[in-house]
């Protein structure tokens, strides 16, 4: 099966995306092998867990086993795929500093990437193909403009079932404006493109179903 890939989207209302986006790919076969191994291990562990519970309870009925809501919602395959997508988003943002964002350095908080991963899983949970059916538009708000950074098709061989637009924000308040120059690399041979930029931990996500006429879902995270 082909790779996770990132491609520019000329139809977005934001500014033009980067030209070399299509060059970034992850090995889909490698990912699927990881998912298969992880899933088999998880199923074996779950089987041993149920055997242990039944042997101690003296019952053969699944109804006697109390499972939390998170046990039903947890999907190791989806979690692993989400981790790969978050890594690709972070890679796209890092590479955009020299092109779309035109800054000398881009600082990406770990908390932001963690929140993005949680939101991806949440919004994909009700979709027929899960996260594999997602088409992700990655944008960064700069002043009054919205700069398009990347478009990511989670599974290029699958017709997308929903579109997510992630609108990230730049840090503009607090102590950051006074210390951002400390993070900008200085060189006598080349001028600095711009100050170092830092992304805020908050962001906006817009979900659009591509197979129905339902209204957009907009969440502030």
Q: What features would you describe in this structure?
A:
The chain has 221 residues and is of the alpha+beta class. The chain contains five helices and eight strands, in the order E-E-H-H-H-E-H-E-E-E-H-E-E. Strands 1, 2, 3, 4, 5, 6, 7 and 8 form an eight-stranded mixed beta sheet that branches. Strand 7 and strand 8 form a beta hairpin. Helix 3 packs across helix 4. It is globular. It starts with a strand and ends with a strand. Belongs to the DDIT4 family. It is found in: Cytoplasm; Mitochondrion. Keywords: Apoptosis, Cytoplasm, Mitochondrion. It holds the Pfam family RTP801_C. This is DNA damage-inducible transcript 4 protein.
Give descriptors for this structure:
221 residues, eight-stranded mixed beta sheet, 34% helix
In summary, what is this structure?
By secondary structure, the chain is of the alpha+beta class. The protein is 34% helix and 23% strand.
Question: What is the element layout, followed by pairings?
Answer:
Blueprint: E1 4-6, E2 25-26, H1 28-57, H2 69-73, H3 76-96, E3 106-107, H4 110-124, E4 134-142, E5 145-153, E6 162-170, H5 176-179, E7 197-209, E8 217-220
Parallel strand pairs: 3-7, 4-6
Antiparallel strand pairs: 1-2, 1-5, 4-5, 6-7, 7-8
Helix pairs in contact: 1-3, 3-4
């Amino acid at each position: 099966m082909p790779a996770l890939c990132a491609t520019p989207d000329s139809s977005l209302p934001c500014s033009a995306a980067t030209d070399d986006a299509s060059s970034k790919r992850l090995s889909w076969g490698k990912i699927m092998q990881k998912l298969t191994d992880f899933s088999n291990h998880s199923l074996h562990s779950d089987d041993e867990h149920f055997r242990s519970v039944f042997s101690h309870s003296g019952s053969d009925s699944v109804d006697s086993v109390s499972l939390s809501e998170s046990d039903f919602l947890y999907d190791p395959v989806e979690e692993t795929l989400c981790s790969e997508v978050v890594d690709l988003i972070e890679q796209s943002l890092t590479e955009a500093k020299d092109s779309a964002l035109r800054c000398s350095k881009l600082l990406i908080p770990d908390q932001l990437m963690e929140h993005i991963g949680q939101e991806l899983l949440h919004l994909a949970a009700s979709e027929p193909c899960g996260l594999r059916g997602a088409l992700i538009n990655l944008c960064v708000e700069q002043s009054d403009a919205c700069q398009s950074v990347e478009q990511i098709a989670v599974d290029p061989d699958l017709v997308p079932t929903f579109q997510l637009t992630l609108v990230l924000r730049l840090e503009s308040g607090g102590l950051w404006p006074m210390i951002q120059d400390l993070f900008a690399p200085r060189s006598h041979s080349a001028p600095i493109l711009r100050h170092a930029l830092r992304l805020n931990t908050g962001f906006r996500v817009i979900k659009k179903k591509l197979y129905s006429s339902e209204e957009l879902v907009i969440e502030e995270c």
